[in-house]
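User: Hello! I'm new to structural biology and keep hearing that structure can be predicted from sequence alone. Could you demonstrate with Transcription termination factor MTERF8, chloroplastic? Please show me the input and the output so I can see what each looks like.

Assistant: Of course. The first part below is the input, the amino acid sequence of Transcription termination factor MTERF8, chloroplastic. The second part is the output, the predicted structure written as tokens.
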Amino acid sequence: MAAAAVALLSHFFPTTAPILPPPSKSTPLPFPISLKLLTKPQPISLPLHCTTSTTTSPTTSTLLLLQELNLTDKQLNLLLRDNPQLRSAPPEPFRRRIASLRSLTPTFLHRIVIRRPDILTSPELTPFLHFLREHLSDLLPAKLERLLSSTSPHLYPYFLRKAELLLDRGVPSKDLSAIANNVNIAKVFCEMSLMDFQDTILYLERFGWPDIVVRRPAILNLDLRSQLIPRVEYLTELGSGDEAGVTAIVRKLPAVLAYTVKHFHSHVAFWRSVGLTDNHVFKIVLVYPNVFSASKKRKLAPRVEFLRQCGLDADDIFKFLIKAPLFLSLSFEANLSKKLGLLVKLGYRHRTKELALAMGAATRTSCENMQMVVGVFLSYGFSCEDLLVMSRKHPQVLQYNYGSLEKKMEFLVEGMERDIGELMTFPAFLGYKLDDRIKRRYEVKKEIRGKGMSLNKLLSVSTKKFDLKNSMLVGVESDYELETVEGYGDLFDAQL
């Protein structure tokens, strides 16, 4: 490698052999001489074991460092020819710069140097590289390579100012790499003006800064005046000026701002054709902003048609979607078709409102859980006809977690010594929390009225009324006893 460097050095600084004066015919030469030597300068090649000085010249040192980047001879020749500042670079700063770059870009530094040789000498790069090590250590290699290969060094101070501004405005340092990895890093941190960057941050603060940019970094790619503001204004107009509602929508799903005004308008026009008002559409979006991500052709149109075939009018469709918006985006093949088949097996008839309502409830659980719930009921002696009756009365019964469901049924039978058949008249029993409501209230009432109490009256009354009524019945002394029951003292204190 050293020999190659010296040879390359001699290419740029050739030396010539001494040329003797032309001999006279009368004076013979004391030694033979070649005509080639007299007419063409010859480069000097130094052997590896021979040096001309104890200190390597700066140019030679530079060549040695550059050769360590695995550049070909042709690439190195072109690099030095087109960038003369590299030949005069001070050896020690040059060595430190290459070492710093290699620590950050160990596998692709040679590609960056070929495209952007000024990164080897530009003074603006020093603070930038330090910032990278301190705050952007998890920046994706591909992102870093594109940044260093395409960015003029004079833009790095702008990069630092914007990154520091994010940190100053509350973005955690640990999240900075993730933000940089998910934006157009050159556009956002280098090309966008500092004023526009600051204005964008100020505008986004109303939607929950810095959470919004941590959850959806790509929002920084959007132009404030031509993209962000028009989209927010469209949603505000859709909601008849409900700015708080729009803020809630964006906080729930920051990605909603990625959709264009044209996209918004297209979806709203579809719902208007169904018979929904703009107010209806806004309320659905408020509950489920992802409604804008559903394909009109593949999902919205066929599912609205299904609801219409089940007998739902526009107002019914609105009420259905407020309670079951996932119906619009779940996969038909992997999800809805399986649930539909299970409901039909239980006895639901096609094209009925009951089937539509049951499908709405089923969207809030997985296919596997729904099948396990049916299995738990069957294991306690219920039939498919019984499940049909219960789910008609209380559609949510099929969406409860099967593990929790089994524990409540076990407590009903063994802890409360009640007949499992009581669920036929009051299936909502399975929707109450076992420890916080069912067990607690049962222990309170058991001391007053014994075990034969109405499940409906026990659980459906509000917590405030229940506590007030029972404090009047049992008095202060009984209240004290209840507060000493393990796990209930803090609960009563919080409610009072």
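User: So the tokens describe the shape?

Assistant: Right, they're a compact way of writing down the 3D structure. Reading them back into a model, for example: Residues 123-221 form one domain.
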